[in-house]
Amino acid sequence: MGRYRRGHKNKNRGGRKNYYGTNGDSSASSLTEADWLLLEKYLLEYRSAAFELHGGKSSVGRGGGGYGQSLGTTTEAGADVVIGTHKFLPLTKETCQRPYIDLPATLGGKERRKIHALCS
Question: Going by DSSP bridges, is the β-strand pair 81-83/86-88 parallel, antiparallel, or unpaired?
Fold first, then answer.
């Protein structure tokens, strides 16, 4: 049994390289500061529309009423909201009735954590 262990000391020491690069974010899919502001606006609109649908009072100002008007999502039925390179669901009545938002699969782990922090 000892011969199988010989020569493998300290083999796994040292940092492993991440598959996607040094920090896990690829520069092509990362969101800019303007994209984060648009995403925050999208999440606030989802929140106020969901509160409106469920009969609660929204703590966020209601602007002009309607779902996603300031983002332009109500002009085209079924059109996705594109923020950066990611496609989010349009803020329709069916989307706002859900207790959650389906995030695009193109978002990375760090971006998902930041979105979760924005929502909580």
Answer: antiparallel
95 with 89: CB under 8 angstroms? yes
Q: Closest by alpha carbon to 62, among 52, 73, 74, 54?
A: 52
d(CA 117, CA 120): 5
- State the greatest distance between any 2 C-alpha atoms of the chain, in Å, as a whole number: 75
Could you tell me the CA-to-CA distances from 71 to 32, 37, 87, 88, 101 in Å, in that order? 17, 12, 13, 12, 17
Contact status, residue 48 vs residue 54, Cβ threshold 8 Å: no
> pTM of the predicted model, to two decimals?
0.61
As beta bridge partners, residue 86 has 83
Q: Is the pLDDT of residue 86 over 90?
A: yes
Helix (H, G, I), strand (E, B) or coil at 86: strand
Helix (H, G, I), strand (E, B) or coil at 83: strand
66 alpha-carbon distance from chain centroid = 22
Q: Yes or no: say if 39 and 47 are a contact pair by the CB < 8 Å rule.
A: no
